[in-house]
Structures are given as C-alpha cells and as structure tokens.
UniProtKB/TrEMBL annotation:
Organism from which the protein derives: Nitrosospira briensis
Family annotation (InterPro entries): ACP-like_sf, PP-bd_ACP
One Pfam family named in its UniProt record: PP-binding
Name the UniProt record assigns to this protein: Acyl carrier protein
Domain Carrier: 2-77
Length: 78
C-alpha cells in the first residue's frame, strides 16, 4: 500500500467512524451506509486538509470510492 492510500484510509476511518477492516479495496458510497452525503463532504474537506490540495465541485461528486480518491490524490500530488 502506498503512503497516499494509507493516509486516505486513516482519514476515512476517522471521518466515517469505521474500523480498518471495514475499508476494503472496493469501498464506495454505494456499499458503505456510513458514507452518506454529509460524511462525504466532511471526507473531502479532511482529505484536502491532509494533503494540502483542493478538489473541484465536479471532483467532489465523482470521488465516491477509495480507488477514485487515491487516483485523484496521486494525480494532484504529482
């Protein structure tokens, strides 16, 4: 696991209030009831703070899984 993925998972655990074993590689808003719209916005803000980046409105809507989040963060960090 990369540093970006580990940090993303840590933020997800805190914001979504879930345990590490609940964060599977395919976790998404569709399959995780705790990941509602309010927590999604809190997650986006927490990730922006953690990585010192900013997501566009379009990105916020589309970043609905661990996979998409890690890919977007890798792109923004490069």
């Amino acid at each position: 696991m990369s540093d970006i993925e580990n940090r993303t998972r840590d933020v997800m655990m805190k914001v979504l209030q879930i345990s590490p074993q609940d964060i599977s590689p395919d976790i998404s808003r569709k399959n995780r009831p705790a990941w509602d719209s309010l927590k999604h916005m809190n997650l986006m803000l927490a990730l922006e703070d953690e990585f010192g980046i900013e997501f566009s409105d379009k990105e916020i809507v589309e970043l609905n899984s661990l996979h998409f989040l890690v890919d977007a963060l890798r792109t923004k960090r490069s």
